[in-house]
Amino acid sequence: MILPTPEQKEQWEEEGYLVFEDAIQGEDLKRLQSAFDYWADACKADWLDRVEAGEAAATFYDIPNPFEKDPVFIDIVDYPSYYGALMDFTDHDLIILAPQVRTVAPWPVSYTGWHPDVPQSNPLHIKVQIYVNDVAPGCGEFAFVPRSHKPDAGPYTRPLRQESMPGHKTFPGKAGTAIMFNSYGWHVSMDNASNVPRKSIILIYEKRTPGRIGYEQFVSIASYCQTPERRKLFSLDG
Q1: Which of left, alpha, beta for 35 (phi over 0: left; psi -120 to 50: alpha)?
Q2: What is the rounded distance in angstroms from the CA atom of residue 143 to the CA atom of residue 198?
Q3: Comparing C-alpha atoms, which of 59, 3, 17 is closest to residue 178?
């Protein structure tokens, strides 16, 4: 297990985020890209039907039930380049809540505004966003307000324009980059004014809370969770 360096620990505590460049590369990245593109295409028609029916947003879509689509989406949950940091920051008591395998369509306005995901009263909540394709500035890159995860930070308000948020940092990056952030902090997807969809995977984790995830949520993929570590990560042992 690759544990975080003292410098990474300090940045995580003070800034609320870490960037892992080349977190996934080589054949593993090609495998992830292939599965992403295949299932995004296979699920696109259903998404467009739901958009037409007014049941889904036109600005982004997620591949439904990705863990059941291809085991590569399971394998990245405990991927070595960032898994040790996740474990360290949660005192080795980590669970996965859900994945979001997301395509953000080119659109002059982002599908979301600045926000935190959970209140400070929530158990530590961490997301890892993995870029599946290269994400240039202005192409819907992730953005975060460093130090906004701290209990005494703010107050913050949602600005009219994404780029008007005081103190924010944007994170363009090449395919395979992983951005880990504390979900107490304020973050957003910037506007995608390009003609290229942003493809990314958002893995949602939390420090274990009894009863947070029921056994039945991931029982369909239990055959891919044979080690005690994976069974605990996917809440398959109660």
Answers
A1: alpha
A2: 14
A3: 17
CA Rg value for the chain: 17
pLDDT (tens digit per residue) in 44-98: 999 999 998 999 888 899 999 999 999 999 999 999 999 999 999 999 999 999 9
Residues for the chain: how many in total?
238
Coil vs helix vs strand at 30 = helix
CA angle 2, 65, 91 (to 5 degrees): 30
CA 73 to each of CA 164, 208, 212, 221, 231: distance values in angstroms, whole numbers, following the listed order? 35, 21, 21, 11, 16
* Helical spans, DSSP H, in 62-125: 66-69, 72-75, 80-89
Q: What are phi and psi of 176, to 5 degrees?
A: 95, -10
Q: Which CATH number fits the domain 6-233, given the four candidates 3.30.470.20, 3.30.70.100, 2.60.120.620, 2.40.128.50? A: 2.60.120.620
